[in-house]
Design goal:
The protein is an alpha/beta fold. It is built from 8 helices and 15 strands. The chain has helices spanning 128-140, 159-168, 180-188, 203-210, 224-233, 263-266, 283-295, 312-319, and strands spanning 2-9, 22-29, 36-45, 74-81, 91-94, 101-105, 110-111, 148-151, 172-177, 193-196, 215-220, 234-242, 270-273, 303-307, 327-331. Helix 1 packs across helix 2 and helix 4 crosses helix 5 (224-233). It is globular. The protein starts with a strand and ends with a strand.
Length: 333
């Protein structure tokens, strides 16, 4: 038997999640059954989208169940196998995060070849956040020559990749982040205009000063006042890739829409929301490009790491306090 600790959803948060909404449990795993593998997780991810799964309401993914282990991206090692397709020592990705170990059908995990990358990169720059950035910028926003690109939460897991892809392709990039350390990181990765949204008194004014002729692309991770500022600064026929709106995920009242939403009509703005799972056909091209960019030193990334499954809830909560630089990860072993 293998002992595994896991984080369960104890209660559904109203507003900001807190420690009391989670509980730590322990289970004993038997040997894997026919067609199954047993995996010891080394790394797990926490992501803003998980907040939506804590509501009991229909969405593009089912809600988390009370009293059961949460789910999310993880990278681990096969420690026992009862399926010929995988052997002990294979490194696999799964959606069985928030736990130290698990048994699952071999077909529900994906074997990966690290190719020299650290394993946790497959939960960040070479994983779902990276593909989100790639698909959102190149397909949804349909990046064109000469575009001025505005990215909110630009020092986050997705934003840092969006900024660098846009710079690699020769574009002017404006990014927002909260605090001097994050602004310094944006400058380090080549962002042309880094705005500390916590320090400027007027975000609309700051964006217009950074882009006096306007913006062509807005990659939205924040919503709220950032979306309003982007609408104000948009050029005619601008494209908005609506990836997330973290400013509203813990809203308990009626969320406020942008007061200037009518500009969408007069400026002929195209706004498109997207979910990365609808763009998995880009995976091959994404991995090839990322390997080239990382290998040539054109793309860098930051991570924030908490240690131990017991600290996963705190890592998750920190996302909504802006206490992460780049990808938020939990090291499990």
């Amino acid at each position: 038997m293998t002992t595994s600790r896991e984080i369960r959803l104890k209660a559904r948060p109203v507003g900001m999640p807190a420690a009391e909404h989670f509980e730590l449990g322990t289970i004993e795993l038997p040997a894997p059954g026919a067609g199954e593998v047993q995996v010891r997780n080394h790394w797990m991810s926490v992501d803003p989208y998980m907040r939506g799964r804590m509501y009991d309401r229909p969405s593009y993914v089912p809600p988390f169940e009370l009293g059961k282990a949460l789910q999310g991206g993880a990278v681990g090692e096969v420690i026992a196998s009862n399926d010929p397709s995988l052997k002990v020592g294979d490194i696999v990705m799964s959606m069985f995060g928030w736990r130290e170990a698990f048994n699952a059908p071999a077909g529900s995990v994906q074997k990966i070849d690290a190719n020299g990358l650290p394993l946790q990169a497959f939960l960040g720059v070479a994983g779902m956040p990276g593909l989100t950035a790639y698909a959102g910028l190149l397909r949804v926003a349909a990046l064109k020559d000469g575009d001025v690109v505005f990215v909110s939460a630009a020092a986050g897991a997705v934003g840092q990749v969006v900024c660098q892809i846009a710079k690699i392709k020769g574009h002017t990039v404006i990014g927002t982040a909260g605090g001097p350390d994050k602004v310094a990181f944006l400058k380090e990765i080549g962002v042309d205009h880094a705005i500390d949204y916590k320090a400027v008194p007027d975000l609309k004014k700051a964006l217009k000063e950074a882009a006096p002729k306007g913006i062509d692309v807005y990659f939205d991770n924040v919503g709220g006042d950032h979306l309003e500022a982007a609408l104000d600064a948009a050029r005619p026929f601008a494209r908005f890739a609506e990836c997330g709106m973290i400013s509203q995920y813990n809203e308990t009242g009626e969320p406020k829409g942008p007061s200037n939403i009518m500009l969408v009509v007069g400026k002929n703005i195209r706004m498109e929301g997207f979910i990365v799972s609808n763009h998995y056909d880009l995976q091959g091209a994404f991995l090839k490009d990322m390997a080239d960019w990382i290998g040539s030193g054109k793309l860098k990334w930051k991570e924030t790491v908490e240690v131990g499954v017991e600290n996963a809830p705190e890592a998750f909560i920190k996302l909504f306090k802006g206490e992460n630089m780049g990808k938020m990860l939990v090291k499990l072993s």
